[in-house]
Write a structure and sequence with these properties.
390 residues, seven-stranded parallel beta sheet, 15 helices, 43% helix, elongated
Length: 390
């Protein structure tokens, strides 16, 4: 088959389980918006969700399908519906972002004769043979995007037989939103007043949903070892995890930190929250492919303390924009927190500028979108008979 003509308006269809609130969903909407602005037509297929309206504002189309299913019979029906949609809308590239919909996407792309792109947004558990086989569908496309070097290594280590090209494209942050120059003092003062924070006391903040894997308990234990007064903000939704909230509160009381630790489940101004903090902490107990808070914190000029695993080491300039501690090590976390809190004004000013530069040089939304669209352009120029065979 011939390659797509350069004069046509390419159509890219992204596929993911749903459009709820999350990093994968945010990336999907960001790419859809960039496609619309750069001479492409964007379509998203999902089972719906909170971000559907935001997607519509980009001008992208949304097709509602139950692609979050793992039921083989429903997957068969999805293949037929997806193939029909691809032909109806003259789709040129199919980009799938999760394993469950990948089973529909792979066969639909083959039927329609179009290239398939997959993105590994996380390090899937390999486990037993059939689990690995289920995961391997994400390597059946013509090109794989890994959102960090950590994920690329995970793929190389666990799927050695794969010959699919892999491109590392880190996630990005919206530097128009996370920009300290665009957050006036009034917004920071408003949060300080609402959260009843005292003047002159350092603020340590851990943003992220309130769940065990995010390491709130680890941070609380580390705070108890600090020989200084701080206020700790645990900012994120519990999503109904009341038992975990109770566990946090019991630990806080046991360590006599009741006046020091604040749980904030609803914050609608995260840039101001980052700006009022002195140190941003990522305390994930398991490796994350790409922790968003590490670049959001740096984008606001704040030092970051994060575990030395997953994608975090790629995002931080060690001892320049942040510190890495031994994963799950309370003592080492406390030591690195103390280092971050000990910076003098000159050191903080220097770090502030380095943090912002690091993000703007490497981790912006524009860079993520540009690199992804370059992948699409590369595949569009490639004749169909050179695409990956079964």
């Amino acid at each position: 088959m011939q390659s797509i003509q350069e004069n046509s308006k390419p159509v890219v269809l992204q596929l993911l389980p749903n459009l709820g609130q999350g990093g994968v969903e945010r990336t999907t909407v960001d790419i859809a918006e960039s496609l619309q602005k750069n001479g492409f037509q964007a379509i998203v297929v999902s089972n719906g969700g909170a971000m559907t309206y935001e997607l519509s504002r980009t001008g992208a189309a949304h097709i509602l399908l139950p692609v979050d299913t793992k039921n083989p019979f429903k997957i068969m029906r999805n293949i037929k519906k997806l193939t029909k949609a691809i032909k109806k809308h003259n789709v040129d590239i199919l980009h799938v972002r999760s394993r469950a919909p990948a089973w529909s996407a792979y066969f639909a792309a083959k039927k329609a004769g179009i290239p398939l792109v997959t993105t590994f947004h996380g390090a899937y558990k390999v486990g037993w043979f059939f689990k690995k086989l289920y995961n391997a569908i994400m390597l059946k496309g013509d090109l794989v995007i890994a959102n960090s070097k950590f994920i690329k290594k995970h793929i190389d280590d666990n799927y050695k037989s794969s010959i699919t090209p892999i491109r590392v494209i880190p996630r990005g942050v919206n530097i128009n939103y996370f920009d300290p120059q665009k957050v006036p003092a009034q917004r920071v003062i408003k949060l300080t007043t609402t959260w009843r924070l005292p003047d002159g006391v350092p603020i340590v903040m851990l943003p992220g949903r309130l769940s065990r894997g995010k390491g709130q308990l680890l941070l609380i234990k580390a705070l108890a070892k600090l020989k200084r007064e701080v206020r700790c903000l645990l900012v994120g939704s519990s999503q109904g995890r009341d038992r975990y909230i109770n566990e946090i509160e019991r630990l806080v009381a046991k360590l006599n930190l009741t006046n020091s630790v604040h749980i904030i489940e609803d914050c609608r101004d995260m840039p101001a929250a980052f700006k009022l903090a002195d140190v941003i902490v990522s305390a994930s107990t398991k490796p994350e492919s790409f922790g968003r808070i590490t670049i959001e914190g740096q984008a606001m000029g704040r030092p970051v303390v994060a575990p030395n695993h997953g994608g975090a080491p790629e995002q931080i300039l060690l001892h320049e924009t942040g510190w890495l501690y031994k994963p799950c090590d309370v003592d080492d976390l406390a030591e690195k927190l103390d280092m971050a809190l000990s910076l003098n004004e000159t050191e903080r000013h220097k770090l502030h500028k380095l943090c912002i530069k690091n993000v703007r040089d490497n981790f912006t939304n524009d860079l993520m979108c540009e690199r992804t669209l370059d992948v699409y352009r590369e595949l569009l120029k490639k004749p169909r008979d050179q695409m990956k065979a079964d």
